[in-house]
Amino acid sequence: MPENPFDPVTLSKIASMELRARLVVDGALSGIHKSPYKGSSIEFLEHKEYSPGNEIKHIDWKVHARTDKYYIKEFEEETNLKCYIFLDTSGSMEYKSTGISKFEYASTLAASLAYLLLKQSDMVGLISFGDKVLQYIPPRSRITHLHVLLNALTGLKPAGKSNTSVILNEFIEKISRRSLIIIISDFFDDINKVITQVKYFQFKKNEVILFHILDPYELTFPFETITYFESMEDERRILADPKSIKDRYLSEMNRFLEQFKQACFENQIDYCLIDSSTPLDQALINFLARRESTSRPRYKS
Amino acid sequence: MISFLNPLLLFGVLGAVIPVIIHLINKKKAISHKFAAIDFILQTNKRISVKFKLRQLILLILRASLLAFLAMALARPFVKNFIGGTPEKDVPTSNVIIVDDSYSMQYSDNHESFFMSAKTAAMEIINNLTKNDDTAVITCSSLGSQVLPELDYDKKNLLNFIEQAQPGFATTHITPALDAAIEVLTSAKASIKRIFLLTDLTRNGWDIDWFKSGNEKLRSHVSNIHIIDLSEGRELKNIAITHIEPQINVSERSAESTIKVIVSNFTPTRIKNLLAQVFLDQKKVAQGFFNIDTNASETKEFYFSVEKGKGHTGWVEISEDSLNVDNKRYFAMNTSNKLDALLIDGDPKTNIYESETFYLEKALNPGREHASSIKPTICSIHEVKNFDFANFDIVFLCNVETLPLEKIHELDKFVKEGGSVIFSLGNKVDSNYYNNSFGTLLPHRLHTARTFSSDSPLSEEQPLHLKATEPIHPALRILSETNMSTLSSVKFYRVFYVDPAPLGNCKTILSFSDDTPALIERQVDRGRCVLFTSSIDRDWTDMPVKPFFLPLMQQLCRFLTGNIAEEIQSETLAMHEWQSPCPEDINSLEITNPEGTKTVLQPQVINNEKSFLCNETNFPGIYTVTVDGKPHPQFTQKFPVNVETTESNLDKISQKELAALMGGTNLTITTSPVSEGSEVLMGEAKKTLWGTLLFLTICILFVESFVSRK
Q: Which of A17, B3, B435, B633 reaches 20 to 30 Å from A168, CA-CA?
């Protein structure tokens, strides 16, 4: 049986980030995604009967000559979306129980999203962060910008602690209105502070999507023997009997996820929990399908 | 105090460290794992960690104690709960502890000996006493040598005495010890008077008849009798050498010895191929195997050569068993040089039976040539000139009428240089000739002969009889009581009367019933002369056909030649007296026991006779007798001391029999604290703990499985 090309493990075998992004986007998402933004462009969309208030310059005089009625030309609007991808590069993102770490998964996801957006001429920028901003690549819409982004993603190495809320706070003023903000992280952080910052973005009419990447072991805690668990962000170390704490751990983890999900729901934040063993295309399809059905009306002009 | 039946298994308690080691190894081997969601573990572990650690600790303790308790249970612990404690602490008691120290108490079958158990038990009893209780200690087998007969309040003194007590080699004497205990308690002032008897309960030593009268004394003077059976009710098995009988045959060239050995099997099974070995002068000289049915004995004879002309000691031993004291018996023997005796027959006859020396020759050398240590040579008066007296140790003149003058001088010289002469008389003897020719040698001058037979026409009176003079002459000591009693049955029809005045250095060995001398000894310079005032054949007396004639003649020869010591030394039983007559010229005697301890003996007058008496025969083995540090020809050089074999039969008196014997007394019979399942008539002597420990172990097992699953 041939390997699923979108399986995270299979993808991890592809060294080039561009190839990974192309594989995911071209192979799986082609024809599905269209820009939700309409406006003036060279591509004619439809005719609409003139009504008072419409600009006169948009009246199609040829149609008027033939029909003696006033019609307005509607064109597919040229997208002018700015997308900011926030990628968590803290030490905890390096954790992997199977073939691919959370960071690799997140990087591939970021690259795929960037390729997808640039392909439709959206502007894509990248902010990688830990407890401070490591790299900021402003959004551009040129397709060549993809290489800049991919090079940046390839050069990243997770380390240190994360402080998502502080980083978000830094960018509240820098990011203009009506931008798409994608945050990819494991969110082992103070989620209340993160939600607060996200709300500021929303207040400025920005759309925020949270990709919550977790490893399957973090979700199921399948350990058996007594183990020294070591922190990936600092020097903490603890001896624990997994069998005795498993129930309690899972309960805590589910409570955390539930709380996060509930906060996002209440604040109309797109939240997507992704198990790093889930095939990437599947994750993207699910996400985009959901966005198609829930978000489109909000952006109709 | 907790003791253990299988103390070696206590090493298993070390197994308790195994869970600790496993825990430490596991902790060391715990894998490290970098984990991103550590905050969740920390949050969780904060709550569970204490619980987890506590559970781990509980499991560790449970598992360690599980192994420790299991090991302790297998070691079979018990608490010695001797009944020595005073029932009411304020009431003073007087106690007598009787410790059986007979040699059967040295029985040991993979445990400590009964005697050691008895010492431990005695110490427990003493330790349980209060300062108001006084105690005396009496031993069973050796009354007097190892006793503290006075009631003593000083525990230290009592404990010290018990500590130093040693097992004896004598037999059990329970009832004399009970007598002694009653005597001690009779004078005691305490209201509670108790006897503790620590014994192996072997039947030997229990005088059943004593209880007919003794029981009443026990009832009236003793409040409680506690018997502690140190054999724990077990059946005791023993194999013992019950008798040895060495014999020696000396010939011209060599000496051969035979030893008859009887081995008894006191076990309930047949014994096969039991090795018995004979050692002579520290070297093994013979060995053999015994196959003995249960409760039976087997006799075997062992043959070996011995060197002539010296004393020998040795022992017979069998393979070891639970009681080794009776597996070895000692013997001592002398192989003196053969004596040459010249028998000058003054009345030879064609018919050999009628010759003067016929009976004498048979007495000195019965049977074969090498059967006796005396070699007699017979000659007539005419032949005597062909013999040199110096080649002989002793010369018999038997009814000799005359001797050539030169032979008379030679005889005189022979005696003065250490030789011995025995004159026996007869119808050829002329008293005047004898008085003139042998006057320097004869103990008494001869008078006329008299006839005493009623059958004879010359009869004047009834025949004379023999009697021993007091004190018994050393030459007669070999004669048994039976032989001595037959002296009076000997009839003398004709005897020579002698001058009442002795010629100096004379001793009457035997006399006639009319108190006239019959056998007289005289010291002449370095030699000795003996005069027998009747005939040595049957002409004048029937003495030659009497049983004592043979030993008397042989012993007389040995006495005269200084070889008085017996060939085979009769054994003395341990803790029994050894006695030896005291020659006039000896004032002290040294006895050295097998341990090397020397005892100096002074002569004592016993039955009007001076004798040496030795009571220090405490140890079996070979004892050495010396005078001024040297062996003396008048004494046995060495004598063997062996244990009395009645103690070897370890048949036990049952508790029911004892209860019946001592009916009416307040009796408690318990096994020793290390016993199990034995009958306890009253009281409880021990409390076993292994059942409780096993129960605890099982409980721990349940708790452990419950905790570990949780």
A: A17
